[in-house]
Design a protein that fits this description.
The chain is of the alpha+beta class and 313 residues long. Strands 8-9-10-1-11 form a five-stranded mixed beta sheet, covered by helices on one side. The relative contact order is 0.14. The mean pLDDT is 92.
Length: 313
């Protein structure tokens, strides 16, 4: 089985790899993860957790979990893994804000620097994946608890995987797999058409109709967290006026972008998160179009001169 993805990595070290290959490929796992349906936090390597004050947290780890080298995953191993992640990644250190970790068998007691009710949600991050830190070849062969272990890693090209027979949630159906990389969308589509890849992530949108026509190929399209956005430079004096920014926003034809540039494989955004998410607010309807933009510019002190909106002197 060859899975072809649109990102590449030169390291499988889960604590620093921003492509998150070790987690995506099933090599490592985190203490908790997100439910695919409603994004609630669910147990993974940790089976339960609680806190009375939001600062002192008690985690109970799953029993019977082993690393791919046969060693037991317990509180001591998890403590060492999290401490290494914070040492090697300032971003993770700042996100977790852990003051101390105590381990006792399969129990972990974590104290954060300040009351931090959102702490468990930070543990879904792939860079907090748990590994056996006593195995030092983090770049080429991290030892995790996932259903697949590393057989061979070719930086920037692929990682070959073998089934971990003693996986705590039952052995995978595949004996082996290849998790390969190619950042060229056209090349990924051609690999699927030629049979060089069995599964392709994010093929070239323009080639989807050709891909759909291939016998035995199924194309799946689903909503994701990815948002395409335009960032305005507020160092520019004109953009410091919110009415100017609203005027620019009113002129963006989101429907055309979704239907043409993205070939219908996008939803028109009304805010940074889809309104279907439980934590997303109900965004107010915006004014759009030329007349709305003229109205905002008028409020910003502009007037129409020879067909051009100019700032009044």
């Amino acid at each position: 089985m060859n899975l072809l993805f649109n990102f590449a990595t030169s390291s499988l070290d889960p604590n620093v790899d921003t492509s998150y290959v070790s987690l995506r490929a099933g090599i490592t796992e985190t203490l908790v993860h997100l439910n695919d349906e409603d994004l609630t936090i669910e147990p993974w390597l940790a089976k339960s957790w609680d806190s009375k004050d939001g600062q002192l947290w008690n985690f109970e780890l799953r029993e019977g979990v082993t690393f791919q080298n046969g060693k037991r995953m317990d509180g001591k191993a998890v403590k060492a893994s999290l401490e290494r992640a914070m040492k090697d990644s300032p971003a993770i250190e700042n996100a977790l804000r852990i003051e101390s970790i105590e381990a006792d068998g399969n129990a972990l007691t974590i104290k954060t620097e300040v009351p931090f009710p959102e702490f468990p949600s930070e543990l879904v991050h792939p860079n907090t994946s748990i590994i056996d830190v006593k195995e030092s070849d983090y770049i080429n062969k991290p030892i995790g608890t996932g259903p697949f272990a590393v057989s061979k890693f070719t930086p920037g090209t692929a990682v070959d995987l073998i089934r971990f027979e003693s996986y705590w949630d039952g052995a995978a159906k595949l004996e082996s797999a290849r998790f390969s990389f190619n950042e060229d969308a056209n090349a990924r589509s051609l690999a699927l058409e030629s049979g060089d890849a069995d599964i392709v992530f994010r093929p070239e949108v323009e080639s989807l109709e050709n891909v759909k026509a291939i016998d035995g190929v199924k194309v799946e399209s689903t909503s994701t967290f990815r948002v395409h956005q335009m960032t305005m430079n507020l160092d520019r004096e004109a953009l410091q006026d919110i009415h100017v920014r609203k005027a620019i926003d009113a002129m963006i034809d989101r429907s055309s972008i979704a239907n043409t540039i993205l070939h219908g494989h996008a939803e028109v955004a009304t805010g940074p998160f889809p309104s279907t998410f439980s934590f997303a607010p109900d965004y107010q309807k915006k004014e759009n179009g030329m007349e709305a933009a003229k109205g905002f510019l008028d409020q910003a002190g502009y007037k129409k001169v020879d067909g051009v909106m100019q700032l009044r002197s």
